[in-house]
What we know:
single chain, 4 helices
Amino acid sequence: xxxxxxxxxxxxxxxxxxxxxxxxxxxxxxxxxxxxxxxxxxxxxxxxxxxxxxxxxxxxxxxxxxxxxxxxxxxxxxxxxxxxxxxxxxxxxxxxxxxxxxxxxxxxxxxxxxxxxxxxxxxxxxxx
Length: 128
Ligand SMILES: [Zn+2]
């Protein structure tokens, strides 16, 4: 489902989808994109990603901050492994487990999550 959700992203360079699941229910979702009310395009005229583009997991976590629910003890399903900035948010949001199917070239995010004792499961996209 996270892979399908990623297709909603307007980003050209990379489309990422995230779902947060708690007690067998999807409590939040997100894909990478600009903040609410901004133009949809994620890249500038040079094809570079705009600085204010939010990553999929950041969108899913902050969407929860706007709701009456919370991510404590939840699982995050994300198509691409988190960057270090999102890893920090994941830890502080109380997420206990992440599942991803594509490894981001930088692994600092995963290193930080491992240090925080967050369970990580990699499922190869080719096997899905
Ligand atoms: Zn990120």
